[in-house]
Design goal:
305 residues; alpha/beta; Rossmann fold; nine-stranded mixed β-sheet; two-stranded antiparallel ribbon; 10 helices; 44% helix
Length: 305
Amino acid sequence: MSGSSPASAGPRGRTAVTASELVNVGREQVHVVEEGPAGGPPLLLSSGLGGAWFDWRPSVDLLRDRNRVIAFDRPGLGLSPAAIAAPTLRREAGVLAALAERAGGPVIVVAHSMAGFHAEALARLRPDLVRGMVLVDPSYEPHPHELVRYAAAVTPLATAAGVFFGATRLAKVLGPLGRRAVLKHTSRRGEPVPDAVVRSVYGRGTVLGTVMAEDIAYREQAVDLARLRERRPFPAVPLVVLTALGDVKGEAKKRAYAQGHARLAKMTPHGVQVDLPDSRHMVQLDRPDAVADAVAQVLRAEETV
């Protein structure tokens, strides 16, 4: 699948283009949607567990006039074909690296939730490809641990379950229902795209199987990132960490949650942590203005680094 919309004049006469295509990244293929002026600062947007490119729609609307915005679906998610390899921290960092290189890198990585693991891994493994970062209510595990590594062994079962759901058409019912249930608790607003688009994505058995596989791989990726932190430093680039507190219950839990994100911000001397008391976990839907402000803050800070 590929295509683009007619070009239009962007800021300062630059050409703005919207394009949707499948891109080869190593052994995998991913669905990429690119918008904004070709000469604008490149932003690479990565969704949380089970997310799709359209999760960023309200944020992209605020970013695309001055930035080259690249949103994508990880292998097996959104409109990307089924994955070849199981989801691991190294695979996800490799996908980001390939997309950053394709964009002409270095890029500003904007990562939500679990994708924060992948963005941080990219920065530590390929600092040459990262000029700044915005972590949008990122996952944070203060003491990750594992007794047995089983994700690689169980992933084929999750994939098979997805195939079964797709073949029996259960995916067309369970997927959209699951998406609505999750969004009800993680956002104050509805879907940013028509229901038909949501069904076309979350009605795919491949997506359901991949969501299960990512959930299974979560803890192992947290452990792998903790080990990577011991070996590779985080580069001294601008970093903004956005903390959603609207769905965190209790003042003590809110303080602990914000403190964890503050530790992430301290990975670099140019890090800032911002509390968003009114936003739920899907900040890119609830507070797209905060995402746009964070990107602008990174760009300003980049001039002084």
